[in-house]
Amino acid sequence: NHEICTRAGEGYLRFLHPVLATDGAPPACTDFLAPYTVTVAGQAFVVIDTSAAEDTCPAKGCDGAPYAAQLAALAPPPGSWLLTHRPVWGIKQTGMLNQALQEAVGATGGRLPAGIALVLSGHMHILEALSFADGGPPQLIVGMGGTALEHAVDRKLDGLTVGGRAVAHGFTRHRFGFVRMEPEPDGWRGTVVSAGGHPLADCTLRAGSLRCR
């Protein structure tokens, strides 16, 4: 969740930049970091910097080319999670996002790189889980862990289309909390937990499917 340079970005990079400091000085602040991969216990997490990706294209259009180039250069191992600040696919009470990232995916054949099993994002201050009819990577948005919540999304998500993808199963929660993900032999199980530590929902992630209830 890269912070932009005009909003304490230098401090963010000092503590969380993937490149080590040189002679005690952190790398210069930049608003567009190169992708990197972190592997923990065999699970790969591919991080791309989408902080500046436009949710809605202005009249002159979005600039998805930088993100398309980064996606095209990725070669993630099977089962990787793509971590982004802004979701590639998100549904609000009125409107959809992120148009710049959807343009980038469209420029790379309409699909994320092979090997990506889940897109995990923040930015929207709610919980939202989207599984798609095409069997491609689901989108999980976990944005209810910090600042004020956004307006609740209470419309039916199943059957809607976002970025050219039809939603097979959609789920939202409008509560502060977090999600705990635990590996299973055939995928992952997620528990949505309230700020008080109480379970709010259960999720299962399998190949091409994310279902919460």
From TrEMBL:
It comes from the Bacteria. SUPFAM superfamilies: Metallo-dependent phosphatases. This is Calcineurin-like phosphoesterase domain-containing protein.
